[in-house]
Amino acid sequence: MKKRFYIKKFESYKENKNTMAELKKNYVDNAMTENNMFIRDLLAFEAEFIHIDSDTFFSPFTARSNIFFRNLKNLDGNKCRRFYRMLSIYYTISLSAKKRGKINIKELKDALFRVFDFEETEKLLFQLLFKCRMENKEQFWPLFSKAFIGHTLGIIKPSLFAVAFTENFCYNSFRTFMRYYTKYISFNRRIEISKAQ
After folding, report:
1. d(Cα 113, Cα 130) in Å, to the nearest integer?
2. How far apart are CA 162 and CA 169, in angstroms?
3. Closest-CA residue to 182 (of 194, 174, 190)
4. Which of 108, 74, 102 is nearest to 88 (CA)?
C-alpha cells in the first residue's frame, strides 16, 4: 500500500515537473520583454529559481509536514501557476522591504504582474501582503504561508506544522535566491548598471 502511494506520488511529481518547466520558459520569455534591465534580469532570475525550488517543494524526500507533496494529485496547471505567482510575491516583497529606497517599487510591482500574468485577485493579495510586511513584519511570515497554502491548494485551515514548514521553506528559498543573485554582481551594482543603460 505504501509503495503504491509513493508510485502515484512520483507520477504526479513528474507531471508537475514538466508543467513547472513549461511555465518557467513562459515567464522567462515574458521577463525578457521588459525594458528596465534590472527588473528584466531580476524577474527572469526569479522564474528560474522558483522552478529549481519547486523540485524540492514537490519532492518525496522533504519533511512529512510538506503539505504540497501530500497534495500533488491536486496540483493542476492552474495551481502550478499560482505556486509561481505566490513565491514570486514572496521574493519581490522581501526584496522590496530589504532594499526599499533603492528600487522603484511601483515599477517592479507592475512588471511582476505582467511577467507572471497575475489575476486581479492576486494583485489585491500582493497589496495586502506588501502592506503587512512593511507595517507588521512579524505577522507577515505566518500570514503569507497561510495565503500561499490557501491560494495554491485551496486549504483554508492548514495545520500549524504545514504553516511552519511553508514559512521555513520560503524564508530559506529567498535567502538562497539572494545569495546566488548577488554572487558575482552585487545588488547595488546591478542597479547602477541598469541606470547607466
Report:
1. 14
2. 10
3. 190
4. 108
